[in-house]
Amino acid sequence: KAGVTQTPRYLIKTRGQQVTLSCSPISGHRSVSWYQQTPGQGLQFLFEYFSETQRNKGNFPGRFSGRQFSNSRSEMNVSTLELGDSALYLCASSFSANTEAFFGQGTRLTVV
Amino acid sequence: AQSVTQPDIHITVSEGASLELRCNYSYGATPYLFWYVQSPGQGLQLLLKYFSGDTLVQGIKGFEAEFKRSQSSFNLRKPSVHWSDAAEYFCAVGAGPSSGANNLFFGTGTRLTVIP
User: Fold this and answer.
1) How far is it, in rounded angstroms, from Cα B21 to Cα B6?
2) CB–CB of B36/B47 below 8 Å?
3) In chain B, positions 13-52, which contact chain A (CB-CB < 8 Å)?
4) Is residue B40 reached through a cis peptide bond, with omega within 30 degrees of 0 on the bond before it?
5) Does residue B53 carry a pLDDT above 90?
6) What pLDDT does A96 receive?
7) Is some CB atom of chain A closer than 8 A to the CB atom of B103?
8) Å from A68 to nearest chain B CA?
């Protein structure tokens, strides 16, 4: 069974640009969550999608958004990039609510 | 609100020695608890989870953890550490069965160094 796939693995963007990251969950999993990992703030929850609906949202500005498609694949978008958005963005896939989450390898975003 | 404390930022152990990584959580209801491991530049791998039932849970790679409600702790243990166990370890708490939410709150992590 394939794991969680995140693309791209690495990304370099300029301040002010926008970026879209993609996540394909484990087959059969309907919940996709996104996390930001930085040395200063650690692992922080961004949002969760379940059956194409955002079910839960962390404390991030509106520049961070996401969506989920009917095949459960998810994308997250960050607009008007700031230097502080440089981070490892991790996607996690779960079968349903309150089940274990399996993480992808992450997308390393560098904003210059 | 949930929170997780991992009091040890960095631990060094000798190969073959035993290991215990500490985790304390704060949550008003029955939590779901997890331990994840992360190698440099990689994602998180689930080591073990506690949802309910037996408070001593077994995981992969020879790890185990014990849930102690009275101490709000979920410490990770391994009887004999291997050099390949060197990594960063994260304890996480989920919202539990009543919430319907799937977000995790993570501790700040404990970096494990294994010396030969």
Assistant:
1) 8
2) yes
3) 32, 34, 36, 41-46, 49, 51
4) no
5) no
6) 82
7) yes
8) 15
| A106·B42 Cβ contact <8 A | yes
Closest by Cα among A74, A112, A67 to A91: A74
Question: Which residue of B34, B90, B105 is in closest CB contact with A100?
Answer: B34
**Gap between the Cα atoms of A34 and A93, Å rounded:** 9
Question: Between chains, do B102 and A42 touch, taking CB under 8 Å as contact?
Answer: no
- Whether B85 and B114 have beta carbons less than 8 Å apart is answered as yes
Q: Hey, which residues 57-86 in chain B have their CB within 8 Å of chain A? A: none
For residue A51, the 8-state DSSP code is: T
Confidence of residue B100 (pLDDT cuts 50, 70, 90): low
| Residue B44 and residue B15 in contact, taking contact as beta carbons nearer than 8 Å | no
